[in-house]
Each structure stands twice: as structure tokens, then as C-alpha cells.
Amino acid sequence: MAAAPTLPALSLHGEELLSWLAVEKGRSANTVAAYRRDLRAYESWLSQSDDVNGGPRGTGGRLAQVDEGVVADYVAHLRRAGLAPASVARALVAVRSLHRFMVQEGDANGDPTADLRPPPLPASLPKALSEREVANLLAAVPGDGPVARRDRAVLETLYGTGMRISELTGLALGDVAIEEQLVRVLGKGNKERLVPLGRYAREALTAWLGAGGRPALVPRRWARRGDSDAVFLNQRGSRLSRQGAWGIVRHYGRLAGLDGRLSPHVLRHSCATHLLDHGADIRVVQEVLGHASVATTQVYTKVSAERLRSAYLAAHPRARLGS
């Protein structure tokens, strides 16, 4: 059997940037891992390319020799490789962060990415489910066993609170306050927020956490430190992973006829859109979703306006063509 290819080691500058992102900026493990992948791809391309200012495009000290033309060549390389504009933009964020970090640390005289702009992203609106589709999805969980209770609580909590999948799987028992109808969520940058628990999410969590639910999946001995405090467990009694939660959403999406359309993020989109549809203030939605800027939340106002327009055109007798 052939040995698996060895991934290239990241430069010292890259490793220091990742440490700074994790420790100083509080970026999540998933964000740091994404930066690592993008930086590895960039440094690998540099090491395999032609000369930079008369020398090889190697990593390490050679990174300080990279100029704007080199970075522009890399962006062109990513486009030729068929990467989507969003992926190219994300890769450029990692590259820019590396070169800015080197300037800040005194390891480079200038930032070759200072005047580069990411490729324009096509405007797109989140595809929220209709309220009927959400109801069908939440009704797709049969039975009352521990797994069914867990899966129902996962779906109700994702839709009812709009939290991210990583926030859901990171929940600890002390974060859920059923009586107070609140859940404490640890979001991006380790920022905490309190999110209301609606009736259905509260009932689903109560059933899951009560006798016949979570206690039935508790193992005789916890496999990993921290699993004992996890709200959601898998069938082996370990903390439910992001992949496991994804699988739950995908499974019931197929049962509800939403195969290919449903993801945890679509449930988050749907939560925000339906809140606005029913008159919630945009600042409230911002707080529920944990957006640092209200500008991020404003995309949902466009979604709701588009849904309003579609409903109007479908329903008003003098709005349709041929009226």
C-alpha cells in the first residue's frame, strides 16, 4: 500500500500567525484550521514556482521577498484552477493576514497585498425554507426513543435559536436554562450571547434531557474529558460532533423531501427570515444570530422583502400580468 502523501510543513511565520489568531484573537479551531489549509496551499505554490526577485519562491525568509505581482499571480492561479470567487476571496484573506502579520512583527518591509482587492462576489440571497417546509421537517422525526428525542431537539434548537452547528454541538448542560427559557451560546471569537428558547425548542430539550432521553445514552465511563457536560450525545455516549449533527439534519431533510436543499445554515437562515417576516426588529435578530455588525443581518431584510413581493404578486388580483 502506498504511503499517504505528507502535507507540507507551514513556515515559522505561518505557525506564529495561527498561534496569534488562536490565542490573541480567540479564533475558533475551525477558523484556524481553514487558515492553515489556505496558507499551506499558498506556501506550497510559492515553493514550486519560478523566481522571485531573482531567487526561488521558497517559504520562510523568502516570504519577505514576495511582491504584489507574485500575489496577483497566485490569485490568477486559483482562478485557473476553477475555484469559486468566494473560495478565492477566502484564500486571499489568509494570504493578506500572513503578510500583514509579517510587517507587524518586523519580518517584512511592506505588505504586497495592500492594494489587492478580492474578486467581486455575486450577490446571493439565503434560501430560507417556507414555514410549511419547516413544519414538515420537524414532523419527520418518528418515535419517542432517546435518539428520536435527541434528533428532534437538535432540529428544534437549530431552527428555534438560529445558532450555528458548532455552537449547538459545543453546548454544555449549564448553558441551558429551561425555566428561564434561555440558552447561553458561545459564538465566534468566544463571545457569549443569551438566546430565548421558544416553546417547541424548550419542549424538545426538556424531553431530551429528561428520563428516557439523554440519560439513556450516558455511558458507564466517559471516553473523553468534557463529554459528561455535553448537551448532545451520540449513540456511543460521546459529545455529538459537527459531522454527526450535520448527518441528523441531512437525514431528516431527505425524509421531508428537502434533499439537497437543507443544511444547518439553511435552518439558521430560515430562523432569521421568519423572525423578520413576523415583525422582529433587525437589532433583535442581530443579537439572536450573534452578528458582530448589523450590516451582516441586513441581508435577511432583503430576503423578507423579496418574499413579501412574491406573496403580493401571487395574491393581489391587480398585481399579476393580464389582470
SSE layout and pairing:
Layout: H1 12-23, H2 29-48, E1 51-52, E2 55-56, H3 68-80, H4 85-104, H5 131-138, H6 146-161, H7 165-169, E3 176-177, E4 182-186, E5 192-196, H8 199-209, H9 242-255, H10 264-277, H11 282-289, H12 294-297, H13 299-315
Antiparallel strand pairs: 1-2, 3-4, 4-5
Helix pairs in contact: 1-2, 2-4, 3-4, 6-8, 6-10, 10-11, 10-13
* Class inferred from helices and paired strands: mainly alpha
Number of domains: 2
Number of helices: 13
In the sheet with the most strands, the strands line up as 3-4-5
CATH topological fold name of the largest domain:
hpI Integrase, Chain A
Rg computed from alpha carbons, rounded to a whole number of angstroms: 24 Å
Biggest sheet, in brief?
3 strands, antiparallel
Summarize the structure.
By secondary structure, the chain is mainly α. Helices cover 50% and strands 5% of the residues.
Task: Describe, in plain words, how this protein is organized in 3D.
By secondary structure, this protein is mainly alpha-helical. It folds into 2 domains: 12-104, DNA polymerase, domain 1 (Orthogonal Bundle); 131-314, Intergrase catalytic core (hpI Integrase, Chain A). 50% of the residues lie in helices and 5% in strands. The protein has helices at 12-23, 29-48, 68-80, 85-104, 131-138, 146-161, 165-169, 199-209, 242-255, 264-277, 282-289, 294-297, 299-315, and strands at residues 51-52, 55-56, 176-177, 182-186, 192-196. The strands form 2 sheets. A 3-stranded antiparallel sheet has the order 3-4-5. It has a two-stranded antiparallel sheet with strand order 1-2. Strand 1 and strand 2 (55-56) form a beta hairpin. Helix 6 crosses helix 10 (264-277). It is globular and about 60 Å long. The model is unreliable at 51-61 (pLDDT under 50).
